[in-house]
Each structure stands twice: as C-alpha cells, then as structure tokens.
C-alpha cells in the first residue's frame, strides 16, 4: 500500500501489473464502504496486459478523512485527478463501481483530458433514474426505508445491515466476518455523506448536454439480478449517452466486480479491445 498527497488529500493507493509505456493504463474507483483492494479479482485478470492503480476513497481503507468543506464526491474527484496528474503520460482508462462510478463519470465530464475511456458498473446516480422514470423514487424509498429509519434512530449497525441487504453481495449479515460487519457499521455515516450527489446533481452533469458531449468511449454495466434501480439508472444514462455500450453480467448483483470479477474483467477487456479497433479504423 502506498501513500501520497493527491489533490491536497492524504490518499492510500495500490497498483497491479507492470509499469510499461506500451501498456494501457487504468484507474479503478471502488464502491462506498469498501476499499481499493476490492478490485483484486478484476485487476488480477487484467494484470497481464495492463498497468493499473486504485485508491481508497476518503474515510475508506487507509486514506485520510473526508473534508466536509467540499462534497464527498468532489473530494474523491480531486483525489482521482491528482493521482492521474502525478501518473502523467496522457489519458487513462477509468473503471468505477457504484459510487465510484459516479466519481469516474464526473471526472470524465470535468477533466476529459485525463480519461481515455470510461467503464461504469451500476453507477448510483439516482437523480438520473428518478427523473427518467416516474415512480422509481417511491419504489426506491420503500426499499430503503429500513435503512433510513435505523440511521435516523442512531442505530448504525441496523442501518448497515439494512443497507447491505439491498446493496451487498447477497450474503446474510450474520454470515459476514465480524471485522467486516464492524467496518460497515463504522463507515455507514459516509452513506449519508454521499446523498448530496447520489440524489442531487450539484455538478450539473445532467444539464446542458454535458454527458452527450463526452467524446471518450463509454461502457455501462449492470448485474443480471441487481437492484432494479441500477438498470433504470443505466437506461437513463444511455439516453444521454446513446453512444455508450451496454453489458449485463449474468448471475451478478450489485457487487459484481467482487463476486463475478472474471466476467466483469472480460467485459472490460472486450470493451477496451473494441476501443483499439475504433482507434485504428
């Protein structure tokens, strides 16, 4: 594990593959309540051909805390941009999962010179889905009510349990290792911290045709058995990015990059290969 100051923020990060100018480079951004090591399965699959880096989001893993003077997403974007600026040598491929996918999307919108291609697994940009599908928010709120009620009551363990029942890897709370349950419980306030951008759009990504204006190739991925909200969000994003490719990972839910790492890696690999073909055409 390495430690650097990226975008003015204490950032822990790791790497896979070999540093080689002939290789494609990829930045991977993990989901909330996890850490950069969640990419191990995907990275191992891609390592023979790529040079990859991933960092811990604010307040996650070994990175420094979130500074509440900026949004959680904004600080995450600053860290990602700082890492890429220090890496140098032009734009890189960016892969994001869940909240990390919203960070990747904002990075591509605000710093397009840093992003060669964009692969997103179930970005939790609820605002896009809610605006496009009437009734989706009510369905979402009903599904997430146990989490919201527990968190409002100060029951962080109950909130973490309820949250993971929707957005986890399918295992019952009691079957998770104790250390993992404790980590999820300790970090659950960070879920509230990302509401501003997951359920709003302070960066204006959905306005003024900003997504349509993206010029990098885009891949939207979702799990076959994931929450319906994830598929609807991708539906909404694809309307704004009609050039985006779409892949459904068979048998996977929201934690597909962990539970179905090989399939996700294969989808990303095929997407990058098609980008090479487009570039050479």
From TrEMBL:
GO terms for molecular function: hydrolase activity. The keyword Hydrolase applies. SUPFAM superfamilies: alpha/beta-Hydrolases. Residues 27-267 form the AB hydrolase-1 domain. Keywords: Hydrolase. The keyword Hydrolase applies. Gene3D superfamilies: alpha/beta hydrolase. PANTHER family: HYDROLASE ALPHA/BETA FOLD FAMILY (PTHR43194), PEROXISOMAL MEMBRANE PROTEIN LPX1 (PTHR43194:SF2). This is Alpha/beta fold hydrolase.
């Amino acid at each position: 594990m390495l430690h650097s100051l990226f975008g003015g923020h204490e950032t822990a990060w790791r790497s896979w593959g070999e540093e080689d100018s002939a290789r494609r480079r990829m930045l991977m951004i993990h989901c909330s309540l996890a850490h950069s090591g969640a990419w191990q399965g995907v990275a191992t699959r891609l390592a023979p051909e790529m040079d990859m880096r991933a960092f811990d989001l604010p307040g996650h893993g070994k990175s420094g805390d979130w500074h509440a003077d900026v949004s959680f997403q904004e600080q995450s974007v600053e860290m990602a941009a700082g890492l890429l600026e220090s890496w140098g040598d032009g734009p890189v491929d960016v892969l994001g999962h869940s909240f990390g996918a919203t960070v990747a999307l904002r990075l591509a919108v605000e710093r397009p010179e840093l992003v060669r291609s964009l692969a997103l697994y179930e970005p939790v940009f609820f605002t896009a889905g809610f605006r496009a599908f009437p009734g989706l928010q009510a369905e979402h709120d009903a599904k997430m009510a146990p989490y919201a009620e527990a968190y409002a009551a100060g029951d962080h363990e109950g909130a973490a349990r309820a949250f993971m029942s929707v957005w986890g890897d399918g295992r019952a709370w009691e079957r998770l290792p104790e250390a993992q349950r404790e980590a999820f419980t300790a970090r659950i306030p960070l879920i509230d911290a990302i509401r501003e951008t997951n359920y709003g759009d302070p960066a204006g990504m959905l306005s003024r045709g900003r997504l349509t204006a993206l010029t990098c190739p885009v891949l939207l991925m979702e799990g076959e058995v994931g929450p319906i909200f994830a598929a609807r969000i991708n539906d909404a994003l694809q309307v704004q990015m009609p050039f985006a490719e779409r892949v459904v990972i068979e048998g996977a839910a929201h934690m597909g990059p962990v539970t179905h790492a090989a399939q996700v890696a294969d989808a990303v690999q095929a997407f990058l290969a098609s980008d090479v073909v487009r570039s050479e055409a």
